Amino acid sequence: MGLALQKKVEIRESRLHTILTYNGDSKGLDKASRENKLKIGRFKFSQCGNCQEGCAFMQVYSVHDAAVVSHSPIGCYANVSERFLGMANVATLRGKDSFSHHSLCTNIQESDTIYGGANKLRHAVEEAYRRYNPKVIYITTSCASGIVGDDVQAVAEEMTDELGIPVFAVECEGFKSRIWSTGFDAAFNGILQTAVKPPKKKQPDLVNIFNFSGVDSFTPLLKTIGLRPNYLVETRSVDEISQMAEAACTATICETLATFVGDRLEKLYGVPQVIAPAPYGIQ
After folding, report:
1. For residue 197, which of 66, 5, 64 has the smallest C-alpha distance?
2. Cβ-contact 41, 23 below 8 angstroms
3. What end-to-end distance do the CA atoms of the chain give, in Å?
4. Residues contacting 62, CB < 8 A, separation 6+
5. Which residues contact 126 (CB under 8 A, 6 or more apart)?
6. pTM of the predicted model, to two decimals?
7. Each residue of 224-251: pLDDT tens digit?
């Protein structure tokens, strides 16, 4: 529908004119927001925010029958490895099959920053395929792999041909954007290109629900009006995710999480977004 998928996504500063800090009055904020002229204020550095890689990793890692290779130093991987136990708990809460560990780290060392880590990355992808027999493999990048300049896209394309399953480079180096949630966009771009299929038929009672961890509170809620949730993406299989384009509409519980994928589903496959404020407050 006039929109082509691309290997890389725009950072949120460019795509949405997103800012993390603002210095000024509310009138100026409203005016600049309407005119897409918002700029990050004088605070240009923060060491207390989240990381693009962590946001991207937590989404692609949560796909039930995928595997993830983190092309990073072990310290970056240690930061995201806390998701392992969390996904097992989410699976239990939502009545799903057990969720097991399915990721590896290339453990970039000093020597790799000099000689490159592409060969180590190829070996890690082969090992992930051997261990987990996944339907898709996602490679998440890091500041280190970006600084070294490894051609992760080329490795992903090469391994796709060799293994016969999609291998996709989710490029989410932390220094690319000050907006850590750009990592969500990078992850969903990879999911759209590897797991989502054009609709064979529309399912008028199916609603895409994008949310983080937690119990499935949407099945009983939507059931009262004759609808079913396609709860995305944590603990869902590739086959379940592939139905995104067949849904009647898309809703995201957190505006930070899935506006990118909601926009793409609407423009590519005609799945409308439900754009409404979160149902908080007395009214």
Report:
1. 5
2. yes
3. 38
4. 83, 87, 90, 233, 234, 235, 236
5. 159, 163
6. 0.88
7. 999 999 989 888 889 999 999 999 999 9
